[in-house]
Amino acid sequence: MSGNSIKLHYEIPAEDFSIAGEASSNVKRILSQLGINPVIIKKAAISMYEAEMNAVIHAGGGTADIDISQEKIVVKISDNGPGIEDVDLAMQEGYSTAPDNIRELGFGAGMGLPNMKRYSDEITIDTEVGKGTTVTMVVYIR
Amino acid sequence: MKLREIISILEAEVLAGGENLDLNILSACGADLMSDVMAFVKDSVLLLTGLVNPQVVRTAEMMDIKVIVFVRGKNPGQNIIDLANEKGITILATKYPMFIACGKLYSSGLTGRGG
Fold first, then answer.
1. Is A26 on the interface with B (CB under 8 A)?
2. Which ranges of A1-142 would DSSP assign to H, the alpha helix?
3. Is B115's pLDDT higher than 80?
4. Whether residue A3 has pLDDT greater than 70
5. The pLDDT value given to residue A117
6. CB-CB: which of B33, B63, B87 is closest to A106?
7. Which phi and psi angles does B77 have, rounded to 5°?
8. Does domain B3-107 have CATH number 3.40.50.1100?
9. pLDDT value at position A2?
10. Which of A48, A58, A128, B6 has the greatest number of CB atoms lying within 10 Å of its CB?
11. Global ipTM
């Protein structure tokens, strides 16, 4: 990877909970193949998985773009969903707008964004109500 | 605690994996909310859950959790078992409910303080 970075792109399908998480799973496997420290991989995988699930749950799917360089892993999840009205509120543990059918899947506990913040070294949330949301997370490798 | 002891204590059925009965488990997490599972990272964790869907296996995969126990006699579908086999995750099923299953493991020494 000297000097170069690896760029990955995935489409996140809408409302298909049987394959939701497939993109995160692929990225985790690639990070393992690159020989990155498992602790770092877990941080990136959990952050991405929560963001991927959010796109499936709230936004009718979206896209995932991953950029892996020697220094860091950048995960960008974008959707054209409803946007987040109050980001500060959404960042609070336990706050959730997920419907009951999502809670039955074991999600919608109001831990998604807090978990992304917990496991990524940097997180940027760019959101506009009615337009969509882009969450960019950085996990440093060294 | 070795996987073989866990299977014995929970009188569990092995539905996927289970090749390495000497696998050492240091800690356990009992939860039906997968985001709660992801909020608490420890190593060599066993996940006990009453939730039965493919996202349980996904969550375990992201967390490097090698063993899932479905409690209260719940039987996962073939799609869940297939996904677990693909990911190298062991799936156990016990007839004990969550509280009893956790209590049995805890009182047998799996207190979570070791990992």
1. no
2. 22-33, 38-59, 87-90, 100-103, 112-119
3. no
4. no
5. 96
6. B33
7. -75, 170
8. no
9. 53
10. A48
11. 0.87
